Amino acid sequence: MRKRIRLHQVRVGMFIEELEGPAHQLPRRSGRFLVSSTKDLDRMLKSHAMSVIIDTRKGLDVDRDTQRSNVFDTTRFETHLATKFTVAEIALARKTIEETRPHIRQVLSSARMEGVFKLDAATQAVEQLMVETTTNPGALIGVAKLKRADEETFIHCLAVSALMITFGRTLGLEDGPVRHLGLGGLVHDLGKMTLPVALLRKAGQLSPPEFAVIRTHPERGYQLLANTAEIPAPVLDICLYHHEKFDGSGYPRGLAGEQIPYPARIASICDVYDALTSVRPYKPALSQAEATDVMLRSRNHFDPDLLRRFVSEVIISGAIC
Ligand SMILES: [Fe+2]
Predict the structure, then answer these.
(1) Are residues 160 and 259 in the same domain?
(2) Do 199 and 55 share a structural domain?
(3) pLDDT at residue 23 tops 70
(4) Rounded distance from Cα 188 to ligand 1 centre (Å)
(5) 110 lies in some domain
(6) Looking at the 3D structure of the chain, how many domains does it have?
(7) Is 170 exposed, middle or buried (0-12, 13-18, 19+ CB in 10 A)?
(8) What pLDDT does residue 308 have?
(9) Cα radius of gyration rounded to whole Å, the chain
(10) How far is the CA of 251 from the centre of ligand 1 (A)?
(11) In terms of Cα–Cα distance, which of 279, 296, 292 is closest to 320?
(12) Both 65 and 167 in a single domain?
């Protein structure tokens, strides 16, 4: 049986049918072979493959425990990063995350404890991300995946902000609008800081009333930001409309198509991509290829032109990993 798996799930003894990724970045020996040694395995980990098709009739299957595990394979992902970026690039990405941490934490804790938005702290974090993503967006977004479980909120803010800056630049936007995207990405879920922690951390299925409470977070965030002077309109739009869907089935307003502000359509793609590729208490992380599959299959959710450009120019181009 053919099965698509993540690159880090490949083991010696598996039969490879196909490596998936940008054709020009795949090794010459990119299909139909048995992984017979750790040398083969290393060569594959160093490739630019995004995912792998195996045939379980001709070789080993993915270990069931591994397949179902919610544990992110940090060591293998670190190896993967080390094959894509230099030691200096990874060190710089780690430094940026450490330097933005106190600012982002201040934004989150002020919203939770005092119900206020600290624009200065958010702006400082975005400026650092703007600089770092000029040369090193893939390393930053990759290193962010190595987060600890208790850093989920902080890292999601940082990762969505960095993704939006990167995507905005890819779209050819000027620095001003890109900066708004970065700030919007950082604060898009700020309304969640006003919700009960137990509800946010609940691992099981949410009941309909609980889900209804969660769905109030865009408007809660918008109110919190709107009370602060000098918040640019695109940032407010991102906060309020990042859960709208292109076919009109989203919330809170049920806007459709181009009724949804452009920055919010960008935010929707980056937010879902980061959520799919991150470990959550209720699900494992998907690979880039799996996340791309899921997003292309739910294309009514997203602006189709923006989704096409995100997949081709941010993911397949190798800008991030
Ligand atoms: Fe959200």
Answers:
(1) yes
(2) no
(3) no
(4) 6
(5) yes
(6) 2
(7) middle
(8) 94
(9) 20
(10) 10
(11) 292
(12) no
Question: Ligand 1 center to residue 77 CA distance, Å?
Answer: 26
pTM tops 0.85: no
Residue whose tokens read 């993911």: 315
Bigger pLDDT: 177 vs 82? 177
**Are 239 and 174 found together in one domain?**
yes
**CB within 8 Å of 202: residues ≥ 6 apart:** 210
Is residue 75, in this structure, part of any structural domain at all? no
From 39, 69, 99, give the residue that closes a domain. 69
CA–centroid distance, residue 73 to ligand 1 (Å): 26
- Torsion sign across C-alpha atoms 298, 301, 305, 309: negative
Q: Do 114 and 164 sit in the same domain of this protein?
A: yes
Same domain for 46 and 102?
A: no
d(CA 302, CA 268): 7
278, with CB counted inside 10 A (0-12, 13-18, 19+), is: buried
Centroid of ligand 1 to alpha carbon of 171 (angstroms) = 23
Give pLDDT, residue 65. Answer: 44
Ligand 1 centroid to Cα of residue 243, in Å, is 6
User: What confidence tier does 250 reach under pLDDT thresholds 50, 70, 90?
Assistant: very high
Give distance in angstroms: CA of 217 to centre of ligand 1: 7
| Residues 107, 190 contacting (CB under 8 angstroms) | yes
Residue-range definition of the domain harbouring residue 37? 2-69
The structure tokens listed for 193 are: 């800081």
